[in-house]
Amino acid sequence: MMQNDVVVIGGGISGLSLAYYCVQAGMKTTLLEKNDTIGGSFASPQYNAHGKNFWMELGAHTCYSSYQNLLDIVEGCGLKDSIIPRAKVPFTLFVNGKIKSIVSQLHILELLVSVPNLFKLKKTGLSVSSYYSKIVGERNYREVISHFFNAVPSQKTDDFPADMMFKSREKRKDMLKNYTFTNGLQSVARAISAKSGLNVFTSQDVNSVVYKDGLYEIRSAGGGEYSAKTLVFATPSSVTSKLLKGIQPDIANHLGQLKAADVDSVGVIVRKENVKLKPVAALIAPNDVFFSVVSRDTVPDDNYRGFVFHFKPGLDEKTKRSRITEVLGIGFSKIEHTESKQNTVPTLRLGHHEWLEKTDALLKGNKSLLLTGNYFGGMAIEDCVSRSKSEFARLKG
Ligand SMILES: Cc1cc2nc3c(=O)[nH]c(=O)nc-3n(C[C@H](O)[C@H](O)[C@H](O)COP(=O)(O)OP(=O)(O)OC[C@H]3O[C@@H](n4cnc5c(N)ncnc54)[C@H](O)[C@@H]3O)c2cc1C
């Protein structure tokens, strides 16, 4: 059995950032990832055509100057030079087969009457629907703005806590306001996993965790066996809950209260001349089989365009394929390459702050067990890295 100071289960940005902090502190660290590639929702598959690379984002796509903890890691991995700007192309609505600007769909009078509430109303304790319908007006919220919010975690967000959807954070003045990386966000995951001193094993579907004589024993479906003094879970809450059942039933039950949504993400690459759609950052669909289509037009390419459809779960391949070709206005034969991925996104509810306080109370005094992920302080990348940073501080404190 391979012995470690720390084993991290889950190779998305939450697990990778926690592993990064451990390795920087000189701890012998192993990270185990179920899939055959590292990154989780940092997924930028590379398509090699005519000797040139084209990538698209099957998950996260944008970082901001306010992602200060992420930026520290990016710099620590020597990746700062691969930060690139995103082209200014619009986020638009897609209604009845037509692109519509957000402004064109808003009821301006209602907006003008409501917007002063921005200076009076606090987000704390309010749901997304109750807060934002007062800021933009009920009809604007229902017909336009709610669809943008739904597109962020690819699920209905009416009942999300308003203060967990978009946070204002201090920005780094020397950074681009929003950006990506030369080879997409997954290059951050690859750079962390290449950090010297970090052992990364992919295709390790962890299915058993036992605690014996002060050590965790971790086993994966493929027969991998690892042991560690400290164990980090960086998996979706349902996976962490299941694996903790035998050793920490209280925490397992507490995590079991959370819900999450699966997002079926399908990306297609097409030659530029075959698609008439004008350049967009994303299409947001109010009442469709997908929540959004995120495009690669933010990093334009001479030959190709990429479109990632974030579908509602449970659709068959034929339905997805025909909707893709309808929206892009092309025949199926014009699709040069397809990539698919399932993402898991938490379903946050009012009362989540109290849930989080209880989680941390249950973990108090137990420095050998760390929990991170996108279901603690929020689902944005910086929320994940911040949670990892504070869990690492708990380990060292
Ligand atoms: C479509 C989409 C777009 C987004 N866009 C943005 C954006 O532009 N900006 C932003 O800030 N945020 C964005 N987000 C949110 C953010 O990207 C995610 O919340 C964050 O990347 C999640 O990271 P994570 O490590 O917590 O989880 P994940 O990335 O889901 O990683 C969890 C990992 O655990 C692994 N795993 C699961 N079970 C096991 C097991 N039994 N054994 C071993 N490994 C296991 C999984 O395979 C996975 O790799 C987006 C999210 C999605 C889904």
TrEMBL record:
One GO molecular function term of this record is:
oxidoreductase activity
Q: What is the lineage of its organism?
A: Bacteria, Pseudomonadati, Chlorobiota, Chlorobiia, Chlorobiales
* Gene3D superfamilies xref list: FAD/NAD(P)-binding domain, Protoporphyrinogen oxidase, mitochondrial, domain 2
Q: Which residues form the Amine oxidase domain?
A: 13-274
Name recorded for this polypeptide: FAD dependent oxidoreductase
Check the record and name the SUPFAM superfamilies matching this protein: FAD/NAD(P)-binding domain (SSF51905)
Read off the Pfam families from this record.
Amino_oxidase (PF01593)
Give the matching InterPro entries. Amino_oxidase (IPR002937), FAD/NAD-bd_sf (IPR036188), Zeta_carotene_desat/Oxidored (IPR050464)
